[in-house]
Design goal:
- Chain A: This is Amino acid ABC transporter ATP-binding protein.
- Chain A: Keywords: Amino-acid transport, ATP-binding, Cell membrane, Membrane, Nucleotide-binding, Transport.
- The structure holds 2 protein chains of 2 kinds.
- Chain A has a single domain, classed as 3-Layer(aba) Sandwich (Rossmann fold).
- Chain A contains 9 helices and 10 strands.
- In chain A, a hairpin with a 2-residue loop joins strand 9 and strand 10.
- Chain B is mainly α.
- Chain B has one domain: Orthogonal Bundle (MetI-like fold).
- Helices cover about 75% and strands about 0% of the residues of chain B.
- Chain B is flat, with a radius of gyration of 21 Å.
- Classes of the chains: A alpha/beta, B mainly alpha.
- The interface between A and B is medium-sized, with 29 and 23 residues.
Amino acid sequence: MALVEIRDVHKTFGKVEVLKGVSLDVREGEIVTIIGRSGSGKSTLLRCINALESVDSGEIRVEGRHVHAKMPDLKQFRQRVGIVFQAFNLFPHLKVERNITLAPLLTGRIGKSGARALAEDVLTRVGLADKIDAWPEQLSGGQQQRVAIARCLAMAPHLMLFDEVTSALDPELVGEVLKVMEAMAKQGMTMILVTHEMGFARNVANRIVFMHQGRVWEQGPPAKLFANPETPELASFIASAK
Amino acid sequence: MNFLPLWRYQNQLIDGAIVTLELTVISAVCGLLIGVAGAVALKGRITPLRWLVRSYIELFRNTPSLIQIFIIFFVLPTFGLKLPAFESAAVALSLYFGAYSVEIIRSGLDSIPRSQVEAGQCLGLSGWQVFRHIVLPPALRNAYPAVTSQFVLLLLGTSLASQVAADELFHVAGFIESRTYRSFEVYAVICVVYFAMAMAFKALFAIIAAAAFRWPRRR
């Protein structure tokens, strides 16, 4: 059974149908990269997976359970699914440590005595142990994004979603974030990414999903997809992304 | 000009100033609680409640505070609710301060981007936890300057309570004037006292802000 099962999902914003029947399976431990032009529905699809957006029809299942905004254990579900955003979304009024430990403490995952150690542990994994007492505003964009990843890791998620997490970064800061994600991939984390980083998609992902006009247009292993795109839309997208 | 006749009334002046402070602080605390609750209601989904809060704000912001105090002191007793002068003024000024606070705090809440709420929800926090730990602290910081200047207006506005004979500073001044006939001197003195209290509060608010809002501003 796939960890994430997406079946014929439709989603409309106002008069615009953003998702026109998307189906997709993601197995445990798989790294799936969703690529496509802006407006192709990839970010919306990602946000549907943890019920930030509701779907109009179709069904999304994660770990076999139907995901929707009114599910009774939505909070528990979201603790198992981490999401990292383009704009980092760190809490500006909390130091790095508190950014990380707020949710584990409030949801009872850990007690007060274990908080500092947890923050140190996940910060070490993103290479920022020395920033534990910094304010988010004192960090570079790349560092903020790594803290955002650490904040998710502190909840020990089963699945990580990345929504264009390097798009807001200066080019020289992209690498440090990708490196952290690559390390997570190696440790077997199931990951679904929306990204414009073709290098990362090519080298780290198990599968590329090309979305076009609200549909999964083409998908397959990166080597095959990049070398021999079957559809002219993907061929032109790859050419323009280079 | 002769300030000497006022000297023997110094205790009354001090007592008056204390009552003014009490009235200000009580009304401010109650008003702020109204402000937070009202702002939450305004952002909530219960339409009749939103309508009620909206009416309350318009009513209290578009009528004279003096009349609000009079209505509570003179009119409510005819419906069986009789409050002493100080309490009447405190209720009226709380409602007055609350009406402004709702709008100030609502705009503070509106200044927090939706993405902050989403980040909290995605970590599995409840609506209340997101509000209390993620939205409210930065919202209060953004609302703080407006709240404090409204607070000073409230401090000065407590002089209206003299009209229902609450023993605050302005009322005491009237009493002293009637005894000494030293109008200019009396009002000069309490003017200085009001000014000093306002400046002291401003200094206090700056200290509180420095302690409570320690995180750096967005660049």
